From TrEMBL:
<dbReference type="InterPro" id="IPR037667">
    <property type="entry name" value="FMC1_homologue"/>
</dbReference>
<protein>
    <recommendedName>
        <fullName>Protein FMC1 homolog</fullName>
    </recommendedName>
</protein>
<comment type="similarity">
    <text>Belongs to the FMC1 family.</text>
</comment>
């Protein structure tokens, strides 16, 4: 069971480093100052007993950071797609949400 916990913590670390990399302007983890700190803390807690409370707290904190960073990234994407443009026409707004407006017909309107 210890191998499973270690694997879970390692996945969380990789996910956290991936989110930090995506926050970087260059896309490199070396350009993010907190990246080295995260790795050093992970190595420090890796040597502590696997069932210790501090290791579980570290894993919970890493999960919280991953959630926070991914939420910020998702918010920025949504904001850029939907709220950054000043004014859109009816057709652009309908296309944005997945609707298609009926085509304008130039012929006479026939009433039944």
């Amino acid at each position: 069971m210890n191998g499973y916990r270690y694997s879970s913590r390692l996945k969380t670390l990789r996910h956290l480093l991936s989110e930090l990399r995506q926050c970087s302007s260059t896309g490199k983890i070396a350009d993010v100052p907190v990246g080295g700190y995260v790795l050093s803390q992970f190595k420090r807690f890796r040597t502590i007993d696997e069932s210790s409370r501090s290791t579980e707290e570290m894993t919970c904190l890493m999960n919280a950071y991953v959630t926070y960073l991914s939420s910020i990234r998702n918010y920025k994407e949504i904001f850029a797609n939907y709220f950054s443009k000043k004014s859109l026409g009816i057709r652009e707004t309908a296309n944005m949400v997945g609707f298609e407006l009926p085509q304008d017909s130039t012929g006479p309107i026939v009433k039944p």
